[in-house]
Specification:
Largest sheet: 5 strands, parallel
Radius of gyration: 24 Å
CATH topology of the largest domain: Cobalt-precorrin-4 Transmethylase, domain 1
CATH class of the largest domain: Alpha Beta
Structural class: alpha/beta
Number of strands: 10
Shape: globular
Number of domains: 3
């Protein structure tokens, strides 16, 4: 009979942030698959758990997933954990979960700590709808493009960000998103936990005054305002943007995005209007 794959959430900082069920499961399974055995061993030692560990990280995930799936089929029960928080949320684990499902192995979540939900709960931004997009791109152009694509989203935006890039990211948020509310949640549940609230420029100024920015960071951005769709002919709208100095193709893209039309559709309309004159 096949075993069970448990997807177990572990603390993101404070070692007390773990459920009774998670402690029991980690002590009962045949094996624990983890990102860094040294990191997970600290947690297990704290709770007196002696279950064997095997490394499972982004560099060996493909081959290790196949090995673990075989062990599950042979009857072993395995707990999957990340270094902190819930596995698969910007952490490895997708391949073993899908491999287990494909093999007919039961997958059980053991819920618990999550940095994004913890930050969202205490940020003071609307929580009725939110969009989590993992880590922002490291390159400026790609990061700005990602932010621009979410500019009008009517939800709270949540990202993870590296401390050495947070100032650059806040610069881009200020330029693209404007003065909407921003929260930087740093070291959530840890000794130096803090929430910095304000506009992107205000939060950046507060961080810039420090000798260094350290720790795990969750970046939250308040929802954008709905952009009314402009009435009238999209061809005329393109013409107005071009007359205002916007390059023609950029104007076509902007009108298509604003009206929910395909770029090629607007391009054909503009071309057709031009050829009919």
């Amino acid at each position: 009979m096949a075993g069970v794959l448990y997807v177990v959430a572990t603390p993101i900082g404070n070692l007390e942030d773990i459920t009774y069920r998670a402690v029991r499961v980690l002590g009962e399974v045949s094996l624990i698959a983890c990102e860094d055995t040294r990191q997970t061993r600290k947690l297990l030692d704290h709770y007196g758990i002696r279950t064997p560990l095997v490394s499972y990280h982004e560099h060996n995930e493909q081959t290790r997933a196949a090995e673990l799936a075989e062990r599950l089929l042979a009857g072993a029960s395995i707990a999957l954990v990340s270094d902190a928080g819930t596995p698969l949320v910007s952490d490895p684990g997708y391949r073993i979960v899908t491999a287990a499902i494909a093999a007919g192995v039961r997958v059980e979540p053991v819920p618990g700590a999550s940095a994004l939900l913890s930050a969202l709960a205490a940020a003071g931004l609307p929580t009725d709808a939110f969009h989590f997009a993992g880590f922002l791109p490291s390159k400026t152009a790609a990061r700005r493009k990602a932010l621009l694509s979410l500019k009008t989203a009517q939800v709270t935006l949540v990202f993870y960000e590296a401390p050495h890039r947070i100032l650059e990211s806040l610069d881009d948020v200020a330029e693209i998103m404007g003065a909407r509310p921003v929260v930087v949640a740093r070291e959530v549940t840890k000794l130096h936990e803090e929430f910095l609230r304000g506009t992107a420029r205000e939060v950046r100024t507060a961080l810039e005054s420090r000798s260094a920015v350290k720790g795990e960071i969750t970046l939250l951005i308040g929802r954008g305002e709905a952009q009314p769709v402009e009435e009238g002919n999209p061809v005329e709208q393109v013409a107005r943007l071009v007359a205002g100095g916007m390059p023609r193709m950029e104007a076509i893209k902007a009108v298509a995005r604003e009206r929910g039309l395909g770029k090629r559709e607007v391009y054909r309309l503009v071309e057709g209007e031009g050829s009919s004159r």
